[in-house]
Model the fold of this input.
Amino acid sequence: MAQHHDAAHATADDEYLATPEGAGHEHTDANVWLIVQFAIWLTIAAIITHLLMWGLFELFVKTRNDAAPAAEFPLAAQQERRLPAGPRLQAIPANEIFEFRQRENAQLNDYGWVDRNAVTVHIPIEKAKELLLQRGLPSRPAASDDPTGSNSAALMPADSSSGRTMERRR
Done:
């Protein structure tokens, strides 16, 4: 039987188990000096880019500070600063709600003017309830006979028309 040249090794990977004397790296696969040069040039380019960006930022800040302040809103009729019309943050919410409740209670429980020119006043709510019980609620006058023969009291707004048309009560 012929001896195969791989007969000394049990598997194909056995020859790579022991590193031969003087072995380093494959000189033909990668040029290490070229990789080192690339890393050096990349570092230099990054440093130069950062320095240029820092200088440009300083230049922008200097030119902005040196420039005369222009009108903030050139189309505005008045250049004064005004607060917007929207709601404001509450400085002390607990105090504001306390003051609001005091004003509400004063209006509900005291007499006062609503409009002096129209001679309109407000009265305490308990007194208003008593007067309402004595006088009763205002009501619609009783329906009179229409010459058309339709009784408006028997009509009610239709559901499907949002109240625009009337239908007979059932």
